[in-house]
Amino acid sequence: MKYKLTLGWPQIVGTFEFVNPDTNVEYLAWLAEGNTPDPYVPPPPPIPATVTRFQALAVLAAGGYLDTVHTYIDTLPRSNITRLAFENATDWERTSPTLAALAAMLGLSDAQVDDLFIAASKVSA
Questions:
Q1: What is the pLDDT of residue 24?
Q2: Residue 15 — φ and ψ, nearest 5°?
Q3: What is the CB neighbour count within 10 angstroms for residue 55?
């Protein structure tokens, strides 16, 4: 059976034919030569765009960051946008300036923040 790979109608990138590996002579010969296919590696989990305040705080606490964040927030004036967002936002957005400021203050890389968001998305009350 032939399939078309597209980038959206009407742009066709290419076509390919699905071949059943159990009946593919070339593949079976390749296996008979002692070759083995690479094992399936699942794609990384998607990085959530948002997590709830509770989820974020729970992961910060579990990672040992929450006390440091509270100490930092307490140094900011009450009118500071980072403080207002930290204290009042019901959802935390991965791309928010507040999150970027807190991550920088903690010395976290983008990959570490992504990992925290993935972990936070799994937290439930």
A1: 80
A2: -125, 155
A3: 22
